[in-house]
Amino acid sequence: MHASIRIRARVAGSPGACAGIFTYLNDDQESDIEILTRDDRSTMRATNQPGVDPNGNVIPEASTPITISQPGGTTNGSWTDWNDYQLNWLPGRSEWLINGVSKLNKTYGVPTEPSNIQIRMWSDGSSWPGNMTVGGLATLDIEWIDLVYNTSREAPEGTCKTVCTVDNFAREPTPQAVSGTGHGLRVGTSLALGLFAFWAAVSLC
Predict the structure, then answer these.
(1) First-residue to last-residue Cα distance in the chain
(2) pLDDT tens across 9-67, in order?
(3) Which residues are paired to 93 by β-bridges?
(4) Dihedral pair phi/psi, residue 194, rounded to 5°
(5) pLDDT tens readout for residues 117-134
(6) If exposure means fewest CB atoms within 10 Å of the residue's CB, which of 133, 142, 165, 166 is most exposed?
(7) Spatial separation of the C-alpha atoms in residues 10 and 75, rounded to whole Å
(8) DSSP state, 175?
(9) Confidence band (pLDDT; 50, 70, 90) for 173?
(10) CB–CB of 183/160 below 8 Å?
């Protein structure tokens, strides 16, 4: 439980699709990076579920639009460009970063149960992604994905006890040993792929 999801991605195409990178257990235990192709190209959505109450009313603090900034944070960027998106799932707090700049911290709806990490490019014609015209196309391209997470159980005897950092590097994310004691973070290796309809899940127990 708890993780840091880092992904370099870009989105392109017709209005009516949603690119989602998120933790998921159920509709009440979910934390999202979402890019809607119906939105302005400088907008990303940071969402913790649930987004509506039992009466179907929108919960205002659930979803927050964030302006994508270029590296350095001085000018607006676009989701059609390569950007580094990061979601930190922490005890009692969710944090969203874009291109290394912290954009939002949220305490509402932070997941409290072990969850999956999923990547989806989807549309169902509902009000959230919007309706895509027949023949339309939207794509999510991914250059790399890094997952940093702790285990929820004690490490078995004889396993590596090296503590690593993935934040103090001068190039692409590469784990670096900082100590020889303690339980090491498990760091996912980078993955390159291009996709339109893609679903992946990693369990965090």
Answers:
(1) 6
(2) 999 999 999 999 999 999 999 999 999 999 999 999 999 999 999 999 999 999 999 99
(3) 90
(4) -120, 145
(5) 999 999 999 999 999 999
(6) 133
(7) 17
(8) -
(9) low
(10) no
**Measured CA distances, 164 to 130, 149, 191, 202 (Å):** 42, 11, 20, 21
d(CA 22, CA 199): 11
| 11 touches 140 (CB < 8 A) | yes
| Distance separating alpha carbons of residues 50 and 30, to the nearest angstrom | 8
pLDDT at residue 181, rounded to an integer: 42
Contact (Cβ atoms closer than 8 angstroms) between residue 153 and residue 144 = no
CA pair distance 121, 126, nearest whole angstrom: 14
pLDDT at position 123 is 92
Going along the chain, which residue ranges are E strands?
3-13, 18-26, 29-36, 43-48, 63-67, 83-90, 93-98, 101-106, 115-122, 138-149, 163-165, 176-179, 186-187, 193-195, 199-204
| Backbone φ and ψ of 106, nearest 5° | -135, 135
